[in-house]
Structure formats: structure tokens, C-alpha cells
Amino acid sequence: MGSSSRAIENTLQHLVDDIQEDIHDYIIAFRNPWDVPSRNYENRNFSWQIKSSRAEEKFQMFFKSNNADIVYLSELKEFQSFLLGKDHIKYQDLAQFTINCALKLLQQNLHLDVKGNLSEDCEFIILKIRASEENLQVEADLCDYVLQLRPDVIDNLDFQKISPYAPYEKRDEIFDRIYKHYDENGNECENGSLFKHIDRIRLVNSMITGIIELSDLQKNSILEDHFPSSSTKILNDLKSNWATLRKWNQKQDLEKLKNYFGEKLTMYFAWLEMYVWWLIWPAVIGTIFGIINAINGKDFTTDSSMSLSEALTLLFSLFVSIASTLMDQLWVRKQNLLAWQWGLTDFQENEEQMPDFKGAYTKDPVTGKRKKVDLNQVQHHGKVWIGYSVMMFFVSLVVVCIVGLFFYRSTLKDKQGWGLRFLGYANAIQIKIMNFIYRKVAKKLTDWENYETRSQYMDALTIKLFSFQFVNSYISLMYIAFIKGRWEGCADGDCMYELSVQLGAIYFINLFLNLIELGLPYLKGKWKMYKHKKNSDGALVSKEDHELTLSSYETPLDDYMEMVIGYGYVVLFSVAFSFTPLIVLCLSALELRVDAWKLCHLTKRPFPAQDNSIGVWMTIIQIMAVVGAATNTGIVIFTSNVFDLSSNEDKWVLFIIIEHALFILKFLISMYIPDVPEIARKGKIWSERIVNEKLYGKLSDTDLERSSRNLNFRAISDGQYIDAQKIIEGI
């Protein structure tokens, strides 16, 4: 078949998928341990031998079933019979027994609808899984899954426009009618399912992970991947209306993103959108100031009068310091508003233990369940300290690199034009290289530190990475701004000019390197798809086969990191190069659509995780804003010497006065703007009242509660009463 005919066939297949889509809830792809002689296929994944005792231990580790599970015990007994008398077996045999047991548990214990087929190259067994409405209701009740109630027309007040959320309880048909119902497209309807597709995905995942250790299977090379089933119709809509540069100026439909990608990922895009809009004001003001300085020439005088450049520098530094606090506080309000609208105000994630977590199995006194417990916490804390010591070692390497770059620049004949730019370019490349190396080291260290849950692991990794990248990204700028002028002097005595050149060079090189980074995942995805099509002998590739070739999207850690480092350049150093906010604005607006494009084109659909905040990044952003106030003040007073002070003591006194004044102002702004909007505060109280009435019959009106349930106080047995006079008389 020619390439043009194959392209037409693929196009027709996509059209069929759009018109008639067989939507499942979840996809599990096992590596195929069975030989397929009809295909040019070599079973290379399971060729090694394993001890029989170790194989039995692994088999039991893969499943969470207990001794009362008949299906599991039957499979275990059959596997033990197979191992009898054998010292070693093929790993292929373990994989076959494991997959068969998993299939039986999925179908006979969980009663899931499972459809299976081989991938086109016969390398994977692909299971398409769907749960019935009845079984979803059972699981929702067991895990207290939160659903939205049907709206009631009461007073139609603002805080009543979001229907309350409540844990689902399976009682009777009449009781189920108090919850919203949805059609297959996720739209509200009178008669439909209680669950949207995203709810089905979470519940099916909860059912599967409650009985099978998917992470352990993946770690032991039996499972290739597991991921939520995508919806071609919704995905195509997102590609057309969200993941495209043509829509760069349009607001995101957060509700649509939340219903497809989940609240955690949507929080990132909501924050990024607000960040982009916030950047407009610093970009406009900074660009105006930059143009004025370019026309008039930067004039940092040494006489007693303040020049125009000095006045603009002072005003811009004050503006950025205050604007950063407004950004933080307004986002906290937005975050709390979204959490209320999504029913996640009191959300607390119930996390499973990580498969790599090392500990002794024991009964948890809190939950009563058997779980791994790290009995040696002293060793864990020691590993954490070693991890941070390694980070400090890498920080010292960065310092050595920067010192080396400045020393090399001092040997150049041209210390101003090309010499200044060379330092910026070399520093930008050094930043990228050191970030890449340290990322690998930080991940290994965090793995070694042995964290129990995913959130603990990600917080530890985030702090390590950001702490290092903070120093790596800003140390050369800090040196030029606050140290270089005193130790070695600046070109023509103008450290502000050197600082602006260094910042501009770093950003332009970063822009070039980021474009290369963005192109690599695209080319990698194309290559994987080409190899997959080649191995399938030109056959039509199914939707699941195609998704299996895509990369997995775990967390927006790298995306947050890149944006927050850019935010740091704005709030810490933009006073030195007032065009920085404009550059960051353009890059951030581009990043929003590029991240959207990556999610829709290059990665599998991520698991729709829930969250009510951006987590540890909020703390990092707030710290950056505080540090920014100090740096901007320091650049104005020490680097540019706007106030033309000759005495270091006078400079330090003025620095402390302005810096403390900014901190007090930032504190007052944060106190004046409440963290929780009034509509969300009232809505939460009202929601709790409605939930108590609808689910538990607990009326908020005490008179109605008293009369409906006959809750009246009874008279004392002898019917005798006393008054104050009798008490006084001692009767």
C-alpha cells in the first residue's frame, strides 16, 4: 500500500473515530509474554531466569488481595503448583501467570467490562476497561467520592449559583436523584449517569489500584503503561480552541480543562493565565521607561539632583515590588474561589504508598490496614541532610563556574562590547548545563531518601531543584549588582549597564535553547510513531496503539519551574533591564499555548488528579516577591546610586528604611485583601447547610427540625419547679 493511500485510510479512520467513538474509562497495556509465531516478533522482554521462591514472592507482591479472596487464592495455588520442584523458572512464566490473574481479578472480583486485543506489532496486550453504572456507585460510596448536587431554586443569590458538593452515598433510587446526572458528553440531563467521564476514570482507577499494584507491575517490566482513555471529540475541540497559537489572546475555558485534565493540572493553567495577564502592566510600564531611557540615554549622575533615568528607575522598582504582592494575593483569592467552585475547599488527598518506598510490613494503628512503615526515621533524616549537602556542593560548583567566567572575561581585550555579551551567553549555557546535570542528581537523591507518598516526594524534589536553580540562575546577576563594583569595578563605572547586558544576553540565549527543547519532544514523538508504524507492517494503527507511543505526562514540575524562574527575573532584576517584563510576557504567553499543545499532541492523557491549590509553588512565589523587594531596593541604592550617596553607612540606612517600608506596605496589602472571596466564604457555609438537609435530613431551621422530628424537651419527673424566691428562702 502506498503512503498516500495509507494517509487517506488513517484520515478516514479518524473521521470514523470522531463520529462513532467507543469510549472506555481506562487503558492497561501489558507487555506480551506469549510467543506469536505468525508475526516477526521476538519475545525479548522476558528471556531471563528467576528463582522460584523469588517469583512467588513477586507474584504475591503484585496483588493486594487477602486470604479470603477465592479468585486470587486459586490463581496463587495454581502458580505454586507450577513452581513445585523447580529451582528456577523463566520470567516469561511469571508474567503469564500474573497477567492471567490480573484479568480474572478485574472481571470476576471487580466485574469490569474488559475488552482486549494485541497491538499491531503484537508486542503489547491492550485492555480497554469500562465499569457499569451500578459498580461505579458502589465504588463511589466506598471511597466517599464527592459529587455535585442538583441545584435548587431558592433566592438565586450569587453564592447559590454553585450547587453544593457532597460525598456519594448509595441508598435508593429516590436518593440518587438529588445528585446531578450527565449524558455521554458530560452535559447535565434529567436521565443519565451520575458520573462524568472524568469521574468514571477516577473511580475505575480506584477499583483497579485497590486490588492490583500497577506501579509494581510497571517497575518489574510486566506492565508497559496504564492511562485514562481519551475522548477524540473533546481532544479535537481542545486542539482547535485551546492548544493553538491562533487563540493566544482568548481566555481559557477552565471548566472544560477541569473536566478533561483534572483540577490539579487546570490549577497550573489558571495560574499561568493570571500570571500572563499580570505581566501586561509591568511590560507596558517597563517598555515605556525603557524607550524613554533609550531616547534620552541612561544618565545615572553623581550630583545632588536626580536625573530622569534615576527617577524612572526608582519608580519602576517600587511599582514591581508592590505589583508582585498584588499578584500573590489576587492569585490566592482566585485559587480559593476555584477550589470552592470545584467542591475542593476541604480537599485532602488520600495517597497510596509509592512502590519504591522501603519499609517493614506491619498493621497501621491509624487505619488498621497492613502497610509498609519506615522504622528507621533517623536514617531517613540523615539521608535528607546528605541530599542537601550534595546540593550545597553543586552550588559551590556554580560559584566556581561564575568566578571562572568572570576571570576569563577579565583576560579579554574587549571587556565592554563583545566581552560583556560573551559573559552573558556563556553564563546562559552554563545555567542550562548545570540545571540538566543537577536534575539527574536531585532525582537520584530524592529516590534514595525514601519518601512514602508521591506528594512528599514531589515537594522534596521541588525544593531541591528550585533552591539550586535559584542560585544557578541569579548568582551572576547578584554578583554584578552588589559585589563587582566594589571588588573589580564595572565598565566605565556603570554596573547598571553591565547588569542589563548580562540579563538581556541570558534571556535571549534561553529563548533559543527553549525553542530547541520544545522541538525535541515533537521529533521524538514522530520517531516513535514512525517506528511503531514500521513494526506494524503498514497496518492501520488503532487509537490505543497511537496513544501507547506517546510520552507520559506526570506533573507540571518543569513547567512551573521555568515560569517561576522567569517570574524571579522580573521581580528581582527587571529594574536593571526594564524590557525584561515584556520579554517574559511574550515567552509566558507562548509557553501557555505550547504547554497546551504538548498535552494535546505529544503526551497521553494524564490522570485527572485533584487539588485545591498550586501547592509548594505558592510559598516559593511569595518568598520570591519578598526577596524581590530587597533586591530592587538594593539595586536602586547600591548599584545605580539613585540618591547619589557617597557614604556606605548612609546607603545602608536608606536601604533599611525603604526595604522595611516596602515590607510593611506588602503586609498591609495582604491584610487588606482577604484570602477567601466573600462569595466563596458564604457559599461554603450555605453548601454545608444544604448537604446536611439533603443527605442527612438535618434541617438548619431549629424550629422545623424540632417539629419534624419531635425533638421536644420533656418535663422533669416530679413536675416540681422552684423560683428565685424559694432559692433565697432556702426551700
Shape: globular
SS summary, helix count: 25
Q: Which strands sit side by side, in order, in the main sheet? A: 4-5-1-10
- The whole-angstrom Rg is 31 Å
Main beta sheet strand tally, sense and closure: 4 strands, antiparallel
β-strand number: 12
- List low-pLDDT spans: 1-20
Helix- and strand-based class? alpha+beta
The N- to C-terminal Cα distance equals 110 Å
State the helicity in percent bands: 55-70%
Mean pLDDT: 81
How is this structure best described in words?
This protein is α+β, with helices and mostly antiparallel strands. It has a domain at 238-345 and 364-678. 61% of the residues lie in helices and 7% in strands. The chain has helices spanning 3-19, 52-61, 70-83, 91-109, 133-142, 173-176, 197-209, 214-219, 232-241, 254-261, 263-296, 308-341, 377-410, 417-449, 454-482, 484-487, 495-535, 543-549, 557-573, 580-601, 616-639, 648-672, 678-696, 702-708, 724-728; strands at 26-31, 49-51, 88-90, 113-118, 124-130, 146-148, 165-167, 181-182, 188-189, 223-228, 360-363, 370-373. A 4-stranded antiparallel sheet has the order 4-5-1-10, with helices on both faces. α3 packs antiparallel against α4 (91-109). The model is unreliable at 1-20 (pLDDT under 50).
